Amino acid sequence: MATAEVEQEQEDFGPQLVNKLEVCGISANDVKKLMDAGFYTVEAVAYAPKKQLLSIKGISDAKADKIISESIKLVPMGFTTATEFHQRRSEVVQLTTGSKELDKLLGGGIETGSITEIFGEFRTGKTQLCHTIAVTCQLPIDMQGGEGKCLYIDTEGTFRPERLIAVADRYGLSGEDVLDNVAFARAYNTDHQSQLLLQASAMMAESRFALLIVDSATALYRTDYSGRGELSARQMHMAKFLRTLLRLADEFGVAVVITNQVVAQVDGAAMFTADPKKPIGGNIMAHASTTRLYLRKGRGETRICKIYDSPCLPEAEAVFAINPDGIGDAKE
What we know:
The protein is an alpha/beta fold. 42% of the residues lie in helices and 20% in strands. It has 14 helices and 13 strands. The chain has helices spanning 2-13, 28-36, 42-47, 50-54, 61-74, 82-90, 100-105, 126-136, 161-170, 175-180, 190-206, 219-224, 231-252, 282-288, and strands spanning 94-95, 110-111, 115-120, 149-154, 182-186, 209-215, 255-260, 262-264, 277-279, 291-297, 302-309, 317-323, 326-329. The strands form 3 sheets. The protein has a 9-stranded mixed β-sheet, sandwiched between helices.
């Protein structure tokens, strides 16, 4: 009896599988078409615009209307009071970064259910931070973890499992188990990068993931599209990619962490700014990420993290260090 109750409770909280629509009068064949198109949960269908459903082969206008109306009945999408929303916000899980100072700056850690963008020059600790949180997201909630698996999409070829083992030892976790809980994929071009997100949503519908890392989200866009002539196509493709990431964060409540590269400003204004580097991806990137963190190098092993943009955190800085066992606090 107790297990049945727990399962019921999990169903109430987690995303609802798209098969649930069969009970509402949608044929099994149509549900299969939705799954083939990358819609694995009722939420995914409810959040999708009608145009997207119509692009699936075999889904007519009338069918799309019926699918949408049935999905909306199962997913609460109307207005709610700010009190209720505040209550939900207070239950948001935050993942520790491994550094107490950095966690304090972020108001507890990396927030689940939203996109956190980390940008900075090379050797500022972006990939090291990703490797550390890939392990901490597996910790129990009372240890500031997320009790879930991690999905890691690497575009630059910088993923190193041995770093995960070093971080696992620090937290007393079994290295083998930690590696088993990390699903890794190398992306080779921007289309492949977007394709991997469809596979990611299928995996998330099957088991509990707490974190999705894309390191780096923009590296391939810099080389697949070149010059001003392709700028509009690049930004459109990137916007769709980021929109899918946001959908995964909303749908499954995972923390999405993306890293970004910087570009040096070489125009006249650069002479008047102390730090003439800015993140690439333009406004599309800026509007898609919820929290943007800017990393820069400090002395020796220390690095400085600054909140560049956040809806609720003040602009402040924290110092952390890159240690052999991952990200930690800087030694005085």
